[in-house]
Amino acid sequence: METKPEHEIFGEDVDFEHIRDIKRVFQPGMLSSQYFFNPVSLRNSVSELCGPGSEDILVYFKVIGGINITSNDKDEKRKWWGAFQDFIPLVERIPAGCEVGYWYGSDGKEYLSPEFKESTPPYQAFAHLFGKGIDGFSSFVNQNPNKIDFSSWTYSKPDGSLAGGKTSVWIGKSDVLLESAWVLNNAFHEMEREGYKVGSEEMVGDRRKEIRIIHPERGALVGSLYGKDSITLFLEKSSLVKLVEQSYRRLMKQRMATVRGRSSAKQRFAYNI
């Protein structure tokens, strides 16, 4: 299955505040402020969308950030990759995919390797989960060096800068999503049992985190986490189509306004000359 323009518009461009004609609400929702997923809520909502079988779906991770695993150990001599090395064995077999990489060299630009070498410590480390839907990133330059940050941005460049937008997508089967959500949830629980602090950071101006799941023939789910408030909305296909059309019209109006604004600016410039 491939992404189509209507999928991208709904997954990336339709504002949460514009969502209407909701068929059903699940609360708490599929996202957890502490353990990333609420697997039971996710299973219930995905069953509503996909039925009892395994279906092809698109999963958009939208503005996921501020979720992390942090060591409570205040020992400054503790190696920065400790949390990362403890976490990876818990998710390396996640059904939706896990790709691990380490950047080596004094500035992280010498070479990339999937192998960890403590004798020549890496500059930074990353784990791509759900393809590149979710990125776990760790580096010695973090404010708390023994920490993993999770986001829908991609931190796979050697200098640690962002390599993608705020929204990422994973395409797969609904049963694979459910199994993978359990694995990730269990990994967060296990890290907590090992003494790590897990969950979302409380920040001023925190943005809404979303996961949007699209079934091309049946509709969509919108999982929202705002602070600690978690909710999932179920929309039938007719509602999804209407939202996409409305969003497209708004986008075209904005572009036309931008073009007219540029044209007026050019005319004023020519007149001044």
Give the ordered list of helices and strands.
Answer: HEEEHEEHEEEEEEHEEEEH
What about the largest sheet?
Answer: 7 strands, antiparallel
Distance between the termini: 54 Å
Trace the largest sheet across and list its strands: 7-6-8-9-10-5-12
- Helices, by number, come to 5
What is the count of β-strands? Answer: 15
Poorly predicted runs: 268-273
**Which structural class is indicated by helix and strand composition?**
alpha+beta
Mean pLDDT: 85
Into which percent range does the helicity of residues fall? 25-40%
Strand content: 25-35%
Overall geometry: globular
Radius of gyration: 21 Å
Number of domains: 1
Per-chain topology:
Blueprint: H1 5-13, E1 24-26, E2 31-32, E3 36-37, H2 39-50, E4 56-62, E5 67-71, H3 82-91, E6 98-104, E7 111-113, E8 124-129, E9 134-139, E10 147-151, E11 167-173, H4 174-193, E12 196-200, E13 209-215, E14 219-226, E15 229-236, H5 237-272
Helix pairs in contact: 1-5, 2-4, 3-4
Structure description:
The chain has helices at residues 5-13, 39-50, 82-91, 174-193, 237-272; strands spanning 24-26, 31-32, 36-37, 56-62, 67-71, 98-104, 111-113, 124-129, 134-139, 147-151, 167-173, 196-200, 209-215, 219-226, 229-236. α1 packs across α5, α2 (39-50) packs antiparallel against α4 (174-193) and α3 packs antiparallel against α4 (174-193). It has one domain. With 273 residues, it is of the alpha+beta class. The chain has a seven-stranded antiparallel sheet with strand order 7-6-8-9-10-5-12, covered by helices on one side. Strands 1-15-14-13-4-11 form a six-stranded antiparallel sheet, with helices on both faces. Strands 2-3 form a two-stranded antiparallel ribbon.
